[in-house]
Amino acid sequence: MKIDSTVDAYEVDYYTKQAELWWDRTGPFWPLHTLNALRVKYILEQLCQRFDRDAADSQPLSDLRVLDVGCGGGILSESIAALGATVTGIDVVERNIGIAKAHAASSDLDIDYHHQTVAERRSLSEFFDVVLNMEVVEHVADLDAFMTDCCELVRPGGTMFVATINRNPLAWLVAIFGAEYVLRWLPKGTHRYQMLRKPTEIIQPLQAHDFSVDDIIGVRVNPFTRSMSLTGVTAINYMLVAGKTAPGNSAG
Question: Would you say the C-alpha torsion 146, 188, 239, 95 has a positive or negative sign?
Answer without folding.
Answer: positive
